[in-house]
Amino acid sequence: MKMQGKSVIIYDVYAPTNVTTMLRPRRQDGQSVIQEGFEVSPSVPFSEYTDVYGNPCQRFVLPVGQVTISTQVQAQVNITKPIPTPPPSYMLVGDLPDEVMMYILPSRYCESDLPEIGKLAMEIAGNFVPGYDQVEEIRKWIHNNVKYQYGVTDSTTTALNLARNRIGVCRDFTHLALALCRSLSIPARMTVGYLDKLQEMDLHAWFEVYIGGEWYAFDAVQEHTEGYRIEIAHGRDAADVAMVTQFGNATLKSLHVEVQLLEPEPAQ
């Protein structure tokens, strides 16, 4: 399926502000980038590098005034990978590849080592077969027990906060899912990008788990994990995959996102 994503971010800048951004798509299996654009207005020079997770990153300085960052991508993507039958099984920690080990550890927003998180994970998934069944129960529990609402969480909200307050947005849903999976020694990472099936269009966050030797996408915001996705970045949590990280005095004024499938979706 050919899919297009666009985002326009506008900042009011009060002093020259250094930023790093993750706004260009990853090039990887299952996602073939056809064309993309990245523009800053007024125009400024920028440099690029690849972080430790393989995400393309940009560095530049926002000038004083109103600054617009516009990006777009057109890519050939596959529908969210279906779970095979029988579903993939749990992998013992000793069998995990070295590069996956970081995703079973606690991180800034995912306190998977706390007893309260471990207790909740066991209450939700302790009686299910280790692996896919546990992850799907965690995903469904979050979808059914956490209310989706803007404006009630912020950049300090963690998985533990959401476990207690049970209200937030896709970033928060994902953090709680990551923490619960990791508490069961199931590797899990945060992924951000474009999704075609959203009621309120925005840059979206979901989670991926490593089971049966592969990464599989799960989305606690959706009733069922489905749709087409363009991945921009992945990492341990939101600290690793922030769309914009600023070091200075600038205020986000607006964010506008558009997603479009450029070919008819196959009949079900």
Automatic annotation (TrEMBL):
Domain of life according to the entry: Bacteria
One Pfam family here: Transglut_core
InterPro entries to which the protein is assigned, alphabetical: Bac_transglu_N (IPR013589), Papain-like_cys_pep_sf (IPR038765), Transglutaminase-like (IPR002931)
Transglutaminase-like domain span: 162-222
PANTHER family for the chain: BLL5557 PROTEIN, BLR5614 PROTEIN-RELATED
Protein name: Transglutaminase family protein
Lineage: Bacteria, Pseudomonadati, Bacteroidota, Cytophagia, Cytophagales
